[in-house]
Design a protein that fits this description.
Helices cover 64% and strands 3% of the residues. It is mostly helical and 159 residues long. It starts with 5 loop residues before the first helix and ends with a helix.
């Protein structure tokens, strides 16, 4: 008999607050069942968003929704990601003081992606197998090296 995932049990018995914005209980839906979809975990999406930016976390969520064939969800995540980036850019443009809050902005975006959008678009009780984050890490490192090289070249060639 298959074991019911933790999140599904909690939703049935009402022990889980589905709208808990700051919840870190994200691993209850991970399984090794070969029939389950392979998705980037909520933890991976959150930490890529926190450490890098909402762009990385948004792309990972978009890829998850692509695997689930949720076109409406992909549109919502893409719109959220773009609007959030524009909002943060405008806030930083208005005040240099707000640049100090980059980590806070990323933290809020991460919570929105994994505690609000995941619950609504992927589903609070969706069981999945975790997808490796090796490729996203390599892409992030590659982009960081490329950006550093461009900045270094630009700074070396200033008049």
């Amino acid at each position: 008999q298959p074991v019911e995932p933790e999140a599904a049990r909690e939703l049935k018995d009402g022990s889980r607050n589905r709208f808990s914005f700051f919840s870190f209980r994200w691993n209850g839906n991970i399984t090794e069942n070969e029939d389950a979809p392979v998705l980037f975990s909520r933890t991976a999406v959150f930490f890529f968003t926190l450490v890098l930016s909402v762009l990385y976390g948004g792309i990972m969520m978009y890829m998850n929704l692509s695997r689930l064939r949720n076109n409406r969800g992909k549109l919502i995540v893409a719109a959220f990601t773009v609007l959030y980036i524009v909002l943060v850019f405008v806030l930083r443009f208005i005040s240099e003081f707000l640049s100090m809050f980059t980590l806070f902005f990323n933290l809020m975006a991460g919570f929105i992606l994994v505690n609000v959008l995941w619950e609504k678009l992927v589903g609070a009780a969706t069981v999945y197998r975790p997808r490796s984050v090796k490729v996203p890490i390599l892409i992030a490192l590659g982009l960081t090296v490329l950006a550093s090289a461009v900045v270094f070249y630009y700074l070396r060639n200033l008049p």
